[in-house]
Amino acid sequence: MIPLRRRAHHVGHLLFASLVLGCHETAGPSQVDVAGIYDLQSVTGAIGMVETPVSGVITLTPYGVAERRVTYQTDSTGSVREVSAAGTYRLAGLMVHLELRQDDGQGAFVWSVQAELQPAGGLRLAYPRAADGTIVESYQKRPR
């Protein structure tokens, strides 16, 4: 039998350990969890067809590779142009940090943008407009 004084000492260590462990946040989803194809559902904050994607897809792989392909209407006749960007992503909790280059990853400029994982497989990408305001693109993950 452990003497009362030693038991109190052990209980103190157990309480301290449980407090320390309880204060850590959960690791959050992994790249395997978020990997998949996300389809554009809606766009807010954009003004005019030049800023507003009419369709789009974001692909995230389990290995940290990212691709964003969006299509914009270029004129009133319905002509469209596709813009593609490729690069990498990393996770920090529910935030997805994307580092993308246009022209399938060959462009000189790196676009650093954040997206937030949403409940039920959503992805919310937000970035500033050229003049003012924020454009928000909402995506939904395709079922596997």
Q: Which homologous superfamily in CATH is the superfamily?
A: Calycin beta-barrel core domain
Structural class: alpha+beta
The CATH architecture designation is Beta Barrel
Succession of helices and strands: HHEEEEEHEEE
CATH topology: the name is Lipocalin
Describe the main β-sheet briefly.
8 strands, antiparallel, barrel
How would you describe this protein?
With 144 residues, the protein is of the alpha+beta class. The protein has three helices and eight strands; from the N terminus they run H-H-E-E-E-E-E-H-E-E-E. The chain has helices spanning 4-23, 31-34, 102-105; strands at 36-44, 53-60, 65-73, 80-92, 95-101, 110-118, 122-128, 134-141. It has a single domain, classed as Calycin beta-barrel core domain (Lipocalin), CATH 2.40.128. The protein has an eight-stranded antiparallel beta barrel with strand order 1-2-3-4-5-6-7-8.
Give structural attributes:
144 residues, alpha+beta, Lipocalin, 8-stranded antiparallel barrel, globular
Brief summary:
This protein is an alpha+beta fold and 144 residues long. It has helices spanning 4-23, 31-34, 102-105; strands at residues 36-44, 53-60, 65-73, 80-92, 95-101, 110-118, 122-128, 134-141.
How are the SSEs placed, and which strands pair?
Elements (H helix, E strand, L loop, with lengths): L3 H20 L7 H4 L1 E9 L8 E8 L4 E9 L6 E13 L2 E7 H4 L4 E9 L3 E7 L5 E8 L3
Antiparallel strand pairs: 1-2, 1-8, 2-3, 3-4, 4-5, 5-6, 6-7, 7-8
